[in-house]
């Protein structure tokens, strides 16, 4: 019987921004669209689509069903990537991620599974 372990990994916000940038600029271009921004205090954000999901109370509205992309969704996406797609999670942790890894991450954040591709 194999061993199963649970571990905690701290991931800096910058690594999440890098992965989102890769998804938004290439990996997920074939299916996503940002429909709006949730920024209740109108906090300035130079790159809103990369920074707002990381800020408490802020989010992106993505795809026609307006899935909320916020810090909670990012946490869920990371956990699901570790469980459902360990190869992509390993690539991400080892900074060997690519457009496919970013696309898988964004889909897991929003849908809880890989719905496209």
Walkthrough of the structure:
The protein is mostly helical. The protein has one domain (14-111). The chain has 5 helices and 3 strands. The chain has helices spanning 13-27, 48-51, 71-84, 86-93, 99-111; strands at 34-38, 59-62, 67-69. The chain has a 3-stranded antiparallel β-sheet. The longest helix is centred in the N-terminal third of the chain and has 15 residues, at 13-27.
What's this entry about, in short?
The chain is mostly helical and 117 residues long.
Strand residues, percent: 5-15%
First-last Cα distance: 33 Å
Helix content: 40-55%
Please compute the radius of gyration using only Cα atoms. 14 Å
Helices and strands, in order, run as: HEHEEHHH
Q: Could you give the order of strands across the largest sheet? A: 1-2-3
Domain module count: 1
Annotation, overall tally of beta strands: 3
Number of helices: 5
* Biggest sheet details: 3 strands, antiparallel
What does the average pLDDT come to? 89
Uncertain residue segments: none
Class by SSE composition: mainly alpha
Note the topology:
Blueprint: H1 13-27, E1 34-38, H2 48-51, E2 59-62, E3 67-69, H3 71-84, H4 86-93, H5 99-111
Antiparallel strand pairs: 1-2, 2-3
Fill in the keyword field for this structure.
single chain; 117 residues; three-stranded antiparallel sheet; 5 helices; 3 strands; 46% helix; 10% strand; globular
């Amino acid at each position: 019987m194999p061993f199963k372990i649970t571990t905690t990994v701290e991931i800096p916000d910058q690594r999440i921004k890098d992965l989102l940038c890769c998804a938004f600029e290439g990996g997920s271009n074939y299916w996503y669209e940002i429909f709006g921004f949730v920024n209740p205090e109108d906090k300035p954000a130079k790159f809103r689509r990369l920074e707002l999901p990381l800020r408490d109370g802020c989010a992106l509205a993505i795809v026609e069903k307006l899935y909320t992309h916020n810090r909670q969704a990012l946490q869920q996406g990371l956990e699901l990537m570790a469980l459902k797609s360990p190869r992509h999670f390993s690539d991400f942790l080892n900074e060997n991620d690519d457009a496919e890894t970013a696309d898988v991450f964004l889909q897991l954040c929003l849908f809880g599974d890989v719905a496209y591709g």
